[in-house]
UniProtKB/TrEMBL annotation:
Gene Ontology molecular function terms on file: metal ion binding; nucleic acid binding; RNA-DNA hybrid ribonuclease activity
Keyword annotations: Endonuclease, Hydrolase, Metal-binding, Nuclease
Enzymatic reactions: Endonucleolytic cleavage to 5'-phosphomonoester
Identification of the protein by name: ribonuclease H
Superkingdom assignment: Eukaryota
EC number: 3.1.26.4
Family: Belongs to the RNase H family.
Domain called RNase H type-1: residue spans: 189-317
Example of a GO biological process term: DNA replication, removal of RNA primer
Enzyme class: hydrolase
């Protein structure tokens, strides 16, 4: 029955351009992403399953249930090759998911998680995520979507930072060639001043210092405190930039010494995309002829460098505030935290993996349960009578000693395995027990 106010068509509409009929379809593939007529990305997510099957074929040839490469290498393989391929275009389609989409992504990721963990096929997917330290695909996709919204589209609806305080990438083709490649001398002959610069970070505070010497005598100091979202690398660059600007403002020649080799290399790179870094390169270009820049070894007893290092630490707290944009690394750090928090919330809300949650209440991307048998024990999905009887593989759930044949029985209580028993943890200390067992390879 037709709903009131809604019209229905007996046939699809016909579109023509210059009398050429344009065929209508339910979905189309554009730049590797399948776009459907409802914009819910279901067709694309369904396509990802076949893509995953092709990507994990190589897993079969290098790893089996009881042989092959270890979980650490397989995890690295997954994170560096498979996941980026699966999440291609997630900056577009990762914004929102239906429950069906999330379940589909879980089933897709599960194919790889089972190969990496070598666990039983009945182990819950979200438990495998936690065991291996691999976040669910829909959580990672959402993080990549948010990063794209902030970094590329410059959306300002996120409370953690003002977009106006965030660095940006610029097109290299828009940079003049003379600014791309800097060829500044390491020293200027008969310079007026020697300048030592340094940057430092202490307890989340970032500072930079510029110490000016004349004839090896310390004569002046400039100290700067940066925002907490800035990096030590930026502080090093800021100090060099200030020293070059000071030389031009005072119409003098200086030799700048820094223990940050990465800063010098960044200034010499021809493919730097950071707007902030390119602004410094422009200043350095204008200072060529009056500024020399060279590297000195840190903590080698050079008085000027040691003094700059000391004042840089003090500047992190007491320096004059210097505003500069947050680097891309800060955004990446935020996105990683965003992914971790969303994953934690998903883990806490999950209705499966209750036993695993007792031992691993907090998710951690660095976690890797490398021992297959420990995974059996924590998940409860392993060669235990209480588990196997559920699938009619055994007639009884009991151990041969008469007790219930669950994982805890064999690890803590069974008289037949008494020589291999662990100390049974209390319910409150199960997470600490698991952490200690995982770190102590002798116990496995």
């Amino acid at each position: 029955m037709q709903k009131r106010g809604l019209a229905t068509l007996k046939r699809p509409p016909i579109f023509k351009i210059h009398n050429d009929t344009i065929r209508t379809v339910d979905s189309l593939k554009y730049l590797g992403v399948i776009i459907d007529n409802r914009f819910n990305w279901t067709a694309h997510i369904d396509f990802l399953r076949s893509k995953m099957l092709n990507l994990i074929k190589n897993f079969i040839s290098v790893s089996g249930p009881n042989w092959g490469v270890g979980a650490s290498l397989l995890k690295h393989w997954y994170l560096s090759v498979i996941q980026p391929s699966i999440l291609y275009g997630s900056a577009v389609w990762g914004g929102s998911f239906t429950v069906k989409n999330i379940n589909s992504l879980f089933s897709i990721q599960r194919l790889a998680l089972l190969k990496i963990s070598k666990s039983y096929r009945t182990c819950p997917t979200n438990a495998l995520n936690v065991f291996l330290g691999i976040p669910p695909l829909h959580v990672v996709a959402k993080g990549l979507y948010v990063k794209f919204q902030i970094w590329k589209l410059r959306k300002n609806g996120f409370v953690f930072i003002d977009i106006n305080n965030l660095d940006k990438y610029i097109e290299i083709n828009n940079i003049e060639l003379k600014y791309k490649i800097l060829d500044f001398p390491t020293t200027v002959v008969d310079c007026d001043f020697e300048v030592y610069t340094d940057g430092s970070g202490i307890d989340g505070n970032i500072g930079a210092s510029v110490c000016i010497f004349k004839d090896n005598k310390y004569i002046n100091l400039f100290q700067f405190k940066l925002s907490n979202f800035n990096s030590v690398f930026q502080a090093e660059l800021a100090a060099i930039n200030f020293a070059a600007g000071w030389a031009m403002d005072n119409n003098v020649s200086v030799n700048i010494f820094t223990d940050s080799l990465s800063s010098i290399e960044a200034l010499k790179k021809s493919n730097s995309k950071s707007k902030y870094l390119n602004e410094i390169k422009n200043n350095m270009f204008n200072a060529v002829g009056s500024v020399g820049l060279s590297w000195v070894k840190a903590h080698a007893g050079i008085p000027g460098n040691e003094l700059a290092d000391q004042y840089a630490k003090d500047s992190a707290v007491n320096g004059n505030f210097l505003s500069m944009p947050a680097p891309y690394s800060y955004l990446k750090k935020f996105i990683n935290k965003f992914i971790l928090n969303n994953w934690q919330q998903h883990w806490e809300d999950s209705k499966s993996g209750n036993r695993v949650r007792e031992f691993i209440p907090k998710v951690d991307c660095a976690l890797l349960t490398h021992n297959r048998y420990l995974l059996f024990f924590i998940s409860g999905h392993g060669p235990f009578p209480a588990y196997l009887q559920r699938f009619n593989n055994l007639e009884s759930t009991n151990c041969v000693c008469g007790g219930l044949g669950d994982p805890d029985h064999f690890a803590f209580d069974c008289p037949l395995t008494s020589s291999l028993h662990f100390v049974k943890p209390s319910n409150l200390n199960k997470h600490l027990w698991f952490s200690n067992i995982l770190k102590n390879r002798i116990s496995l």
